[in-house]
């Protein structure tokens, strides 16, 4: 897997290939939680690919290219141009241990992490040209260090040769319940039925688009976390990674 070939003969040198672990699956399945823990344990970087679509979704909404109720016919070329105009960089933050996303010189924080912007993201994520414009940026992340990548198409499209692929899922009800708890813990008001409806609408858009639909790669471990706590999910995925040859120090 990690092919860092030490050789004295530079003409024979192979490019270093770092290990890539893909965690795909629907909203609320626990991808972010397990991705973070794996990245910490392994000292790998973390790719939050959803943040890219969230940023494009937010900017498209601000530019009037999409509406909150998804009723507008979207001009794909306009969203592509907007995507291409964004200067997006991933910058490792040694203090937090996370990777900051910088857009046009401004750090994008937690403000994109809400269900409304998740909905905007899934509207722009349907478009192949938009997805393609974000491809190299994501793939470049694997050229610098080991990577744990979280998204919908990490194992199917972005890193088809990844060392480990997991599709983490859970029932829509279990996922909505987790979101309600998460929002309430953050001091926000959360309505279960409303969240369940938005989660289902996003699932539907993500699973049924023609380009890079959300689905397990043929060689992915599919894990249903509905009845597992976050720790059990981590342990099962860690074991799977080890079976695939990934070394954990602890
Ligand atoms: N297996 C689990 N059981 C219960 N809650 C979980 C589990 N995994 C994660 N969570 C919690 O559910 C919420 C959503 O998890 P998150 O990792 O953000 O999901 P995703 O990235 O797939 O949308 C968070 O509050 C997280 O702490
Ligand atoms: N690799 C990815 C990641 C996200 N997305 C889109 O971006 C939206 C937000 O993704 P996310 O991973 O931040 O969402 P959560 O699973 O955290 O709720 C998804 O609903 C998808 O529409 C995608 O199409 N491809």
From TrEMBL:
EC main class here is: transferase
- What sequence ranges are listed for the domain Cytidylate kinase? 21-241
Q: Which UniProt keywords apply?
A: ATP-binding, Cytoplasm, Kinase, Nucleotide-binding, Transferase
Q: Which Pfam families match?
A: Cytidylate_kin
**Which reactions fall under this protein's catalytic activity?**
CMP + ATP = CDP + ADP; dCMP + ATP = dCDP + ADP
Molecular function, one GO term: kinase activity
The entry's localization annotation reads: Cytoplasm
Work out whether the entry's keyword set contains Transit peptide. no
Tell me the residue numbers annotated for binding ATP.
25-33
> InterPro entries per the record?
Cytidylate_kin, Cytidylate_kinase_dom, P-loop_NTPase
Q: What is its EC number?
A: 2.7.4.25
Q: Zinc-finger: is it a keyword of this entry?
A: no
Q: What is its main location?
A: cytoplasm
Q: Which family is this sequence assigned to?
A: Belongs to the cytidylate kinase family. Type 1 subfamily.
* Name of the protein in question: Cytidylate kinase
């Amino acid at each position: 897997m990690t092919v860092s070939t030490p050789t004295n003969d530079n003409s024979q040198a192979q490019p270093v290939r770092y290990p890539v672990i893909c965690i795909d699956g629907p909203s609320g399945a626990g991808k972010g939680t397990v991705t973070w823990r794996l990245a910490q344990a392994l000292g790998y970087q973390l790719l939050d690919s959803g943040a890219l679509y969230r940023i494009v979704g937010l900017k498209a909404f601000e530019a009037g290219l999409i509406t909150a109720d998804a009723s507008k016919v979207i001009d794909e070329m306009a969203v592509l141009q907007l995507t291409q105009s964004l200067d997006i960089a991933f910058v490792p933050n040694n203090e937090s241990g996370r990777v900051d996303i910088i857009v046009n010189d401004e750090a994008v924080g937690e403000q994109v992490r809400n269900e409304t912007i998740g909905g905007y993201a899934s509207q722009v994520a349907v478009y192949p040209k938009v997805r393609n414009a974000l491809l190299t940026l994501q793939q470049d992340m694997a050229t610098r260090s080991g990577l744990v990548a979280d998204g919908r198409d990490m194992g199917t499209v972005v890193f088809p040769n990844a060392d480990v692929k997991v599709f983490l899922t859970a029932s829509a009800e279990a996922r909505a319940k987790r979101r309600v708890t998460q929002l309430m813990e953050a001091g926000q008001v959360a309505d279960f039925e409303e969240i369940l409806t938005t989660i289902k609408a996003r699932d539907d858009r993500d699973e049924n688009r023609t380009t890079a639909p959300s689905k397990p790669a043929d060689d992915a471990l599919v894990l249903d976390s509905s009845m597992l706590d976050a720790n059990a999910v981590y342990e099962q995925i860690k074991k799977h990674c080890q079976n695939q040859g990934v070394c954990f120090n602890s």
